[in-house]
Write a structure and sequence with these properties.
alpha/beta, 4-stranded parallel beta sheet, two-stranded antiparallel ribbon, 6 strands, about 160 residues, Ribosomal Protein L13p, Chain: A
Length: about 160
């Protein structure tokens, strides 16, 4: 007795893998005015990983580009702006350095959001490549207007994304 399987009958059960030629990237623009850092970072991390697409594959980079403007007006909830600590190590014995978002925003206003997004991505070379798709700018203008980015309204996604004065 021989058993023959017709593969076409099981085509709907097979996993479809995305090829590099099938990948296309879109551009999104987010206004960070009064946006909460952690909530904004989760939205950005999801987009640059490609988890918002139906054909998401964890081992491939098919995320979209994200342009964030008005980064100097980003907000922290509670007392995190003064009390939260960022640590880094110089590589020398006793070389641990710490800073707060308050000090960091004076030197590099974009760094606190970039660190938050970076820590939401998995470690490794793929995450470093995906992090290059994040473009952060102070002020209203940015050089990526020719890509016609789609505007994401954070307040419409969830009212807790924006701090109201």
């Amino acid at each position: 007795m021989t058993l023959s399987l017709n593969v076409s009958n099981y085509a709907h059960l097979m996993t479809k893998f995305v090829k590099k030629s099938e990948i296309s990237s879109n551009w999104f623009e987010i206004d960070a005015k009064n946006a909460v850092v952690g909530r904004l970072a989760t939205i950005i991390a999801k987009i640059i990983r490609g988890k918002n697409k139906t054909n998401y594959t964890p081992h491939m980079d098919h995320g979209d580009f994200v342009v964030v403007k008005n980064i100097e007006q980003i907000k922290f909830t509670g007392k995190k702006f003064q009390n939260k600590k960022y640590y880094r190590h110089t590589g020398y014995p006793g070389g641990i350095k710490e800073t707060t978002p308050e000090k960091l925003s004076k030197k590099k206003p974009a760094e606190s959001l970039k660190l938050a997004v970076k820590r939401m991505l998995p470690g490794g070379p793929l995450a470093k490549k995906q992090l290059t798709k994040l473009k952060i700018y102070t002020g209203e203008t940015h050089p990526h207007s020719s890509q016609n980015p789609k505007l994401i309204n954070l307040a419409k996604l969830n009212t807790k994304n924006i701090i109201r004065n």
